[in-house]
Design a protein that fits this description.
alpha/beta; 18 strands; 21 helices
Length: about 675
């Protein structure tokens, strides 16, 4: 049960708050608590309603007048000499009768007794004729309305009230911005938009919530210890790094690591994206940087986390031009960040954490010692790390007894923490749709297939298209099973998923960090397997191999131009290293003769692999037919079924050396 909070009490010296139950008091306040925002809004609306009533009263008519037609009632009353006076304004006429007259409205309405009236003069009436008629009957004609004295007040209210309200609004905005430290009405443009998380305001994230990136955690433990015990280092003359750069692929946990550092150190946490600094107004980004670092110093110990730092921290030596003013604004923002980090005093207990997916495009001034002088790589987790991440994300998920986290981790090589979180969530969704009491292994398997291969599509294919797709996927699978160095085949399917009409899933047994030349050639051969199977069986080709050709071309070009695996080129980087207008380190555009030589080498590698794959499928045509017929009957083949149909002993796959897989006859 929640304890009652102490209420303020009015005293002679001001407002006092009673001490809390734990004995800690609150200093006396010199003014009463502010009116809640909702109540202030209520009084504001109530005041507007009252003002509207006053204006309505002042503009209302002193008495009700009956609206009558110009002809025949008004003209008849004038001709009868019963009109005493009228007041005309534009086309409207108001007046008084000398004696009461009866007006019989058209239709079934009851007759009305009229003394005061109003009417409209039609546009086609001759004003001179009307004036003559009124003069003959001695009718008093007024140019203004009879309530002239009241019109003066109405004019004053309607003329000055909007101006007073506008001036009051600007005064209120100015005082509000001044109290907030914004420096005036326009000061909010230059204020930092960082989201500040104070100590204890939200659930604390610790290193227990981070797994799979132990090396990065170890690097940050020292930062946490400095924020908690700075005197331990300062007494020995040591200085903690002013900035720590976290870099790595998206989804590896850079933001989570920054939050964990703040949680472990119990420090204030300022978080924002670098793109939030820059606005259309030049100079706003630099002003926001100054305000951010000012707030961080006041809240020290504090951590400033700037995500996607490359948005403002790109190298100033490239990408000159672009939108007018945008480049200058980004440069000013970058210069202000450099200045603020240089301005840290030794005792300033503020650390800047930056995160980026592309450290190669950052300006070198950011990475020099004294600024971001510690750089930590945050890479995708290994198999052990994926198991730990699965445990963390499945803490709130009921798991069935058949769930094997180790097997799941082995089937997701290269997955990041964000990928694993998505897999766990998709598995829970599958279990909910199937009314399972707990998430089963099958739910996880289907979730992985959905994310890796794509969601199943309901596509109606002709028998000819299904048959061609079956041979295409069988060609991929058979080449993968019979080629030394290829990754083991896990599943073959002709069920349309994503943009593909069929898929062949092949993943390594262990995490791979480098590949030999023969393993890369094996990847090219597997990619060519579908195209070669169509050519062997049907004698022609289709567009189904588009993505395969793109993948194998990229591998072949990298072998020649990046990895030095061609004797004709040698160990020279000759590929175009430009990315988004920036020239990557160590690369230069190739000359025309060199580029021609690269193209020839790529073509030689691909053509040689295609010839070998075609010969293999022609020689093993019976196995290809067996796989294709089984796919047409069952649509999906798991690893044991596929290897049995191909006559390959699954036990010969060495978990540590998938390149040593061999084929045996049935």
């Amino acid at each position: 049960m929640r304890k009652a909070e102490s209420q303020p009490e009015k005293t002679e010296s001001g407002w006092r708050v009673d001490p809390a139950p734990d004995g800690r008091g609150t200093p006396a306040q010199s003014k009463p608590p502010m009116i809640p925002r909702g109540r202030r809004f209520f009084w504001f609306v109530l005041g507007l309603l009252a003002l509207n009533l006053v204006i309505s009263f002042m503009t209302g008519r002193p008495e009700e007048r009956e609206r009558v037609p110009y002809q025949p009632f008004f003209v008849e009353q004038v001709e009868a000499g019963n009109v005493e006076e009228i007041s005309s304004q534009a086309d409207s006429i108001e007046g008084e009768l000398k004696s009461e007259a009866t007006f019989d409205p058209p239709g079934d309405a009851e007759p009305v007794a009229v003394t005061g009236f109003e009417t409209e003069v039609p546009a086609f009436i001759d004003p001179a004729e009307l004036t003559r008629l009124l003069a003959e009957q001695d009718v008093v004609i007024n140019a203004e309305r009879p309530d002239e004295g009241r019109s003066v007040w109405v004019s004053l209210v309607l003329g000055f009230l909007p101006t007073l309200l506008l001036v009051g609004f600007f005064i209120w905005m100015f005082r509000r911005q001044t109290r907030a430290g914004g420096g005036g009405i326009l000061g909010g443009f230059g204020r930092s938009t960082a989201r500040r998380v104070k100590r204890g305001e939200q659930e604390r994230v610790s290193f227990d919530d981070v797994a799979g990136i132990d090396e990065a955690e170890d690097e940050l433990v020292e930062v946490v210890d400095f924020l908690k015990n700075p005197e331990r280092y300062t007494k020995l003359g040591a200085r903690v790094p002013r900035g720590v750069m976290l870099y790595g692929p998206p989804g590896t946990g850079k933001t989570l690591l920054a939050r964990a550092v703040a949680g472990e150190a119990h420090a204030a946490f300022f978080s924002l994206s670098a793109s939030e600094f820059v606005e259309a107004i030049v100079g706003v980004g630099a002003s926001r940087v100054r305000d951010l670092f000012k707030q961080a110093k006041e809240a020290a110990p504090a951590i400033v986390f700037i995500d996607e730092l490359d948005a403002v921290g790109r190298s100033r030596s490239g990408n000159v031009g672009g939108i007018s003013g945008g480049h200058d604004e980004r440069e000013q923002t970058l210069n202000q960040i450099l200045t603020e980090m240089d301005g840290f005093e030794p005792g300033t207990n503020v650390i800047v954490l930056g995160a980026t997916n592309r450290p190669e495009v950052l300006d070198q001034a950011l990475l020099r010692p004294g600024r971001f002088d510690r750089r930590i790589a945050v890479q995708p987790p290994d198999r052990k790390g994926r198991v730990e991440i699965l445990r963390i994300h499945s803490r709130s998920v009921p798991l069935a007894p058949d769930v094997d986290l180790g097997r799941l981790a082995a089937s997701t090589p290269g997955a990041t923490g964000a990928d694993i979180a998505l897999i766990v969530n998709e598995a829970a969704l599958f279990a909910a749709r199937r009314d399972h009491a707990a998430v089963e292994q099958r739910d996880f398997t289907d979730a992985i297939e959905k994310i890796v291969l794509g969601a199943e599509r309901q596509v109606v294919m002709t028998d000819a298209d299904r048959e061609r797709t079956a041979y295409h996927e069988s060609g991929h699978a058979l080449v993968g099973m019979l080629t030394p160095g290829a990754d083991p085949v896990r599943k073959v399917s002709i069920i349309p998923r994503g943009q593909a009409l069929g898929v062949t899933l092949a993943t390594p047994e262990t995490d791979r960090y480098s590949y030999r030349r023969d393993e890369l050639i094996a990847k090219i051969k597997v990619a060519l397997g579908g195209r070669a199977a169509e050519k062997v069986v049907f004698g022609d080709l289709t567009t189904g191999a588009e993505s395969d050709i793109q993948n194998l071309t990229q591998i072949a070009r990298s072998m020649v131009g990046r990895w030095g695996m061609s004797n004709a080129i040698g160990a020279i980087a000759v590929t175009d290293g430009r990315e988004d207008g920036l020239l990557l380190p160590g690369a230069s555009p190739a000359s025309a003769p060199t580029q021609q030589l690269v193209d020839e080498e790529v073509r030689r590698i691909v053509n040689g692999a295609e010839e070998e794959v075609t010969e293999l499928l022609q020689r093993e045509r019976p196995r290809l037919e067996a796989l294709a017929r089984a796919l047409l009957d069952h649509e999906t083949l798991d690893q044991p079924e596929a290897y049995e149909l191909a006559g390959v002993e699954l036990s010969q796959l060495d978990a540590g050396h998938p390149s040593e897989a061999a084929a045996t006859d049935r």
